[in-house]
């Protein structure tokens, strides 16, 4: 009901393992996420450590949700000689293809402690409902015939 995700994500992960992490040609690793249904909404949580809230963009076009975030270099790098630089910088983006049963107009977003949490309501028409059964043919009788 919720989504398909970036088809090249797994290929990128394998390529980075084979060729030893971040090369100059590779894009930054995709942002990890959890997605689950909680009652009448889907919740999607993205890990974005070190990203400020103003460096996150959310866009929805039709049923495609795009999350873009940028981890910027520290501002106080003027007099710094870097010894180890393992934390990737740059722009991260991820697209989710939302099902037709989700309300893209009602998406809410919250960012706290490096975790972006999106709440996507399920449309009323997609919620489980009970269907009543009426008996229009009347009661049926079962007769026993003696032989």
TrEMBL record:
PANTHER family: HEAT-SHOCK PROTEIN 20 FAMILY MEMBER
Family annotation (Pfam families): HSP20
CDD domains noted in UniProt: ACD_sHsps-like
Taxonomic superkingdom: Bacteria
Similarity comment text for this entry: Belongs to the small heat shock protein (HSP20) family.
Name the UniProt record assigns to this protein: Hsp20/alpha crystallin family protein
Span of domain SHSP: 24-136
Source lineage: Bacteria, Bacillati, Actinomycetota, Actinomycetes, Pseudonocardiales
């Amino acid at each position: 009901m919720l989504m398909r995700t970036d088809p090249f994500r797994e290929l990128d992960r394998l390529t980075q393992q084979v060729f030893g992490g971040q090369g100059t040609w590779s894009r930054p690793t995709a942002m990890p996420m959890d997605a689950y249904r909680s009652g009448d909404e889907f919740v999607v949580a993205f890990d974005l450590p070190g990203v400020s809230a103003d460096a996150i963009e959310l866009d929805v076009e039709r049923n495609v949700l795009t999350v873009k975030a940028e981890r910027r270099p520290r501002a106080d790098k003027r007099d710094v000689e870097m010894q180890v630089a393992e934390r990737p910088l740059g722009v991260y983006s991820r697209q989710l293809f939302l099902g037709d049963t989700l309300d893209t107009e009602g998406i809410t977003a919250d960012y706290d402690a490096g975790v972006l949490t999106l709440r996507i309501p399920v449309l009323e028409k997609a919620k489980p409902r009970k269907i009543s059964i009426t008996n229009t043919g009347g009661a049926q009788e079962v007769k026993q015939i003696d032989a």
